[in-house]
# Entry
Amino acid sequence: MKKDGRGKKSEIEDIYPGIVRLRFGSPEKFTPSFFKRPASDRILSSMPVPKKSHLDIDCIEFRKTSRGCLLEIPLSSGEDIYGFGSQMKSFRQNGKKRTIRVNSDPPSDTGETHAPVPYYLSTAGYGILVDTARYAVFYCGTHVKRSSGRNSGGGKAGCLSDRTEELYGGSDSQSRKVVMEIPSAKGIDIYLFYGDTVLDALRRYILFSGGGCFPPIWALGIRYRGYTKLDQEQVIQLCESFRNDNIPCDVFGLEPGWQSKAYSCSYEWDKVRFPSPDRLRAGLKELGYKISLWEHAFVNPSSPVYGKLRPFSGDYLVFNGLVPDFSIPKAAKIFADYHEKEFVRNGISCFKLDECDNSDYIRSPWSFPENSSFPGGMDGEQMHSLLGILYQKTIDDVYIRNNIRSYGEVRSSHCFSAPYPYVLYSDLYDHREFVRALVNCGFSGMLWAPEVKHGLSKEDFIHRLQTAVLSPLALVNAWTMVHPPWKQFRRAENQRGELMGDRKDLIAVVKKIFQFRMSLVPYLYSAFLRYHLEGIPPFRALVLDYPDDLKCREIDDEYLVGDSILAAPLFAEQQKREVYLPSGGWFDFNTRKFFQGNATYEISPKLDETPIFVKENSILPLSSTNESIDKDTCFNLTVLAFGDNPEPFKLCIDDGTTFNYENGDSGWMELSWDRTAGKGVAKIRSNCRIKRYRISKWDHVQAASVSVAGACGGEVQ
Amino acid sequence: MKKDGRGKKSEIEDIYPGIVRLRFGSPEKFTPSFFKRPASDRILSSMPVPKKSHLDIDCIEFRKTSRGCLLEIPLSSGEDIYGFGSQMKSFRQNGKKRTIRVNSDPPSDTGETHAPVPYYLSTAGYGILVDTARYAVFYCGTHVKRSSGRNSGGGKAGCLSDRTEELYGGSDSQSRKVVMEIPSAKGIDIYLFYGDTVLDALRRYILFSGGGCFPPIWALGIRYRGYTKLDQEQVIQLCESFRNDNIPCDVFGLEPGWQSKAYSCSYEWDKVRFPSPDRLRAGLKELGYKISLWEHAFVNPSSPVYGKLRPFSGDYLVFNGLVPDFSIPKAAKIFADYHEKEFVRNGISCFKLDECDNSDYIRSPWSFPENSSFPGGMDGEQMHSLLGILYQKTIDDVYIRNNIRSYGEVRSSHCFSAPYPYVLYSDLYDHREFVRALVNCGFSGMLWAPEVKHGLSKEDFIHRLQTAVLSPLALVNAWTMVHPPWKQFRRAENQRGELMGDRKDLIAVVKKIFQFRMSLVPYLYSAFLRYHLEGIPPFRALVLDYPDDLKCREIDDEYLVGDSILAAPLFAEQQKREVYLPSGGWFDFNTRKFFQGNATYEISPKLDETPIFVKENSILPLSSTNESIDKDTCFNLTVLAFGDNPEPFKLCIDDGTTFNYENGDSGWMELSWDRTAGKGVAKIRSNCRIKRYRISKWDHVQAASVSVAGACGGEVQ
# Structure
């Protein structure tokens, strides 16, 4: 028990080594923690207590107001903060007001986004989660308080400008506090996650959430969502055509057209377009595809579950459909049981959970109002925050109880979402913002899919695809495209059937890019296992691994993929870009050239070369081409050993599709480089019957061979 | 006393004939009504009770929630609603969610704007004001509630579309309720204003607010705000040059550069640029100019009032300046006394009150946070709603006690603002939105200035000017323009001193437009008196005068000026536009052609002709050119009598600058047309010593002379 500045008591509870909960006042019942998955208890308990706590708990102030309650948490000098979920418009959050309100089309940098999280991570080595489903507001050092004396005349006070931007421009006297306002609540729990490094603090948040998701191995292949008006024969034909053209693809996604009613949903096959779902499933299975079904949670009056869900639904309709209250176990069970019987047990591998976000900024906002009442006790504000999470949980539970791993798409999420096997996406389409969202999501234990729909030019289309294959989900979403976008990347022309004359060249590039993704699957699979077990995001900002490198604190157009790859995507028609490489040595993956770190280089990769750098002294296993991945797939590996002293790399072995690895049906292949013998060594320890990898070749890439000297801030010399 | 749906009691109080207050629960202390001006008691008491009440009070439901409180008010079929203050992005508000939150740069149609008002007006003949300074949300028939039975499968439920706009497009099953949510409050007062017509209901709202403002007569002339970096000699030279070029101008506005510190404000003359304010005042007075001073309410540490205001200020700084709490009479008095002594008694005629709004959507948001505390008891949310009002009141009180009428500019306002002599403006610059805001403001008893700053083309610049002179304030805001914009309407070129070669032609057009404004001053002055005494907005939507004409319910690009003029502005490079004319006959002001109403025409006015129509059977007095207006100005009138049976028109006579008219020092000149004699008659009844008008000419314009037949929806034949 301690007292805050106004004499109010706060309770302090040590949850795990390095995780503390502070309780102020009387928190609300329905908060993110109320619904969260169990923490990764074993590893959290075994992690050593961080050497210092980085934040003086005694400095935290709490106060109830007529609007709700208020927290003030100090920021120290030099401390940079990141996080708040899927932020698309900014990276470093100092000086910003963040409104944690789910919204699909944030018009400017307000903090609103598809998956906003009341949580930030500090370079000082801690993270703070405010456990609320309210639309909390975070003022991240934005405002200066009136001091007891006369405030100085500094800042912009003396300026005379004829430009509004200057008059309103950032003040040079930022405050050193994060002020958080939680509306309506009479109290609040906050969770502090400490670490000896910022990544360490983040790992604690992710492990407390339950650890990162571990997708089935096929889910790391290519996913294609087809035109919404296709019928089942057209789907099968399209899937066949990919195989005929040797275009890798693992998952075919059906958009709204598979349902008899969508907007709102019937969750029943449309009898005209899909007269025999059995035949569709068999056909796609034979071709090596998994099926993903689109849906949202709004239940059409014609749906078989409508009657049962009525009493468990909110008091407002959306698209004339019920909004089921998944916070009520009975409601979730009705929905889950139906999905289990109709889809999961019939071989549907994953779902795309659409429109569980909200919309205030589009022309026709559509979701339920914040004043809604739900029978479980939440109101519309709380439900908007948590619908994405509850929806993921409801469907995920079905797969778990069937011992099937799934990996779907979802349009909204919130706190503690790491364990749910869902990747965020949106209807927005700014490539630069997609990359920023991907990078930012790592701070909150989330995954973002920079899906590819169409392109403004060949370069734009290819650059987008290159980002997609260097992301958690290699997704092409052609729901408005009658033909695959590589035959015509412009939407209107595509819909009119005007295919490009030179499409063969483009298809060759697309295939190369997809094959590159497929070659990374073993590497990514191992990175995801670390996400799951150790809480290290497979896709993350440079600042997480290089927190003391001030340059990295600003970089949101490069990111790490696993532990050894740095991605530096190009945008639109760019033919070159600058890349900052942090300390150490780096190899250009495509040219094998060596670059000294701590320097900025200009690169100009060829259009068909996805621009990545590989860290010196790392081992990168690459699979030769698979067009799809099965549970029995054996990856044929070429292993690249970079640098003079490569560190070993562990490939994960399991059945790839179930949770049996949790019971020991798993193992690993360790790849290492024997310097003395000058050759690679592979060791296997596995209880799994699957032979997952075969090594066909080792290749040693050394700095001496081709080397590029660079100066900090300079160009290639 | 009555009970609402949940058994909670509401108190009903009849305030005036046709004005009812309902009290639900325990309202907050600080609400708009707490600070409002006294109602126009005499006329409100004398207005007859409306014949029907249009709204069944028993159907209003109230409920407290964890978020605040909730009101549900039925909408009947065919009822259209308007209002909510200075809405820029939509007109008819049915089907919209309105968030009543002051914001300077609303990114989309959310309801946020500079002067949002928790008030709407229904075509059924009533207005509803929710008396709150909270960020209330109005769901205007947006959402459908789950009914007790199975909802029909109608709406968009069955659609299959490949376009997001269609999927999210407006539902065809809108609800018939306005649901209002008031955050944090435990109770609420609402005011119902009834009328036999919608205009009648609106008049009650305006009169309850205290009646519309009545500007000094010179304020209806041209106002020019000069480049912010001008020094006093440059100001005098510029003012002289206008006179030399015979460019009408009444008020010269000084932008931030007049102060020693701005952003935040010192409220002291800058000693370098303005070494002798006395000389400036004398010089401008001699040239026939009034002076307007720019300021905002954030008090710089160097200001003489800083020390005194410190204890009466909010706990956060803005631009490193204090935020005085004008809700505290002592704080208002300090600020007011200083302004009185330094400026009002020294001949400063009006102020431009900047930045009393808020900003969440710009790159560098700058105002105080919602969690601010003010010593008077309000929080930041309430202060954001009311700062504009309190600021206007503080300055207005100074002028009132000095028996001087003023007419300034303000960047934010709220409920009950009609009596404050301030016109709203903004940093936005979409001409179409400016006109919509001007039209919408009328519904809430507000005035909007579509100020002219620069132009994208000659046509754009002229069309903007034409709107400005047909608005409450004919304002050119050249604060970023080194030279008058008619010498170079492009900003960058203007700042570089690159004047246009053909500027003489443009200047001639500008003069003609300004002269046209000056000719309307007597007409406008009388319209403003009716605003003041009778509550009829001088600038208003067609639907207010023609509520049963369904076409008028959608028209927000035409508006009425006074009782006889219909304005139909052109935008950007438009050379023609369609104009809908309501029932009755109309004369094109420029061509004198007659148009039958209830029809749509295409017009293509010349670039130097401001497109207006004059109602048949009305009398329009036009003044011959004045370059500026003095208290003794005698307007030289040409009186146009339109149609066979013109109704008399009353011109207002008073001293034009004081409140002495309230004590009978006033009168009128009635203009009428003697059909039999075929000549005009002017009758004067006045106690005022001023001879305000002289009639030099009568002109009878008849339909027979030049007539145009038109069909509904058709073009000119």
